[in-house]
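call fold(seq) -> tokens
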Amino acid sequence: MINVWLQMLLDWINDELASQRIIVKDIEEDLFDGQILQKLIEKLANVRVEVPEVTQSEIGQKQKLRIVIEYMNRTLNVAMGWNQQKWTVDTIHSKNLVAILHLLVALVRHFRAPIRLPDNVTIPVLVVQKRDGLLQTKRITEEITTTNDDIGARFERDAFDTLFDHAPDKLNVVKKSLVTFVNKQLNKINLEVTDLDNQFHDGVYLVLLMGLLEGYFVPLYSFHLTPTTFEQKVHNVSFAFELMVDAGLPQPKARPEDVVNLDLKSTLRVLYNLFTKYKSVT
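ret:
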């Protein structure tokens, strides 16, 4: 089971880094020095992480790894104490498989990677401690994944699940109706949506749409009009969600990261909620 799961993670990393002709063969041996982790976070977050040049010395490797890990921790927005329990520069550099897996699972969940994390994955770990001059060992079971609730991302199935699973032809009808609805508003400021699948992922149209529907001007300093990084896009979508809640709409089921990562079902749910409330707005 664990070998299948490790291969799943390897395949995901290699898919992400394929354009850079990077092939990862072993999670423990290939990720410990930070070079692959740097390339991975740069690809996932669409950023550039400034690190020292490649070095073979342990000190140099750890310096580079520390920069990469600190950037990942900020991106993942994990509590300092929590991530130190799960992974550190020393545990990653020492090729600690458990620490590396905890970090990869956090990345998979944060960036909504297109892989299904198995529930309740555990790894047996041998803990060696020195007490009173004697080495003592004990075996514990380390929990890598729990039930895959992904911070509340598992909701009851709704109409969009049914459409995707059983009625893709009707899905296109819904998409056309939503395009007509959003363009009725966006045309007022000379904007137009032609590709529902891709034009909402940076949050700009969502923010502008909320201003048009509610009849106010959204200050340009409150969001990124031309976002280039993953964080800027997440900020925009999060801000749009805040505007929706302020307007009396329920908190969107989707996470901002879902929309940014072009999860069509999440985008459609958000737009359909707007359609339900504002379809009669001229």
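The chain has a mean pLDDT of 84.
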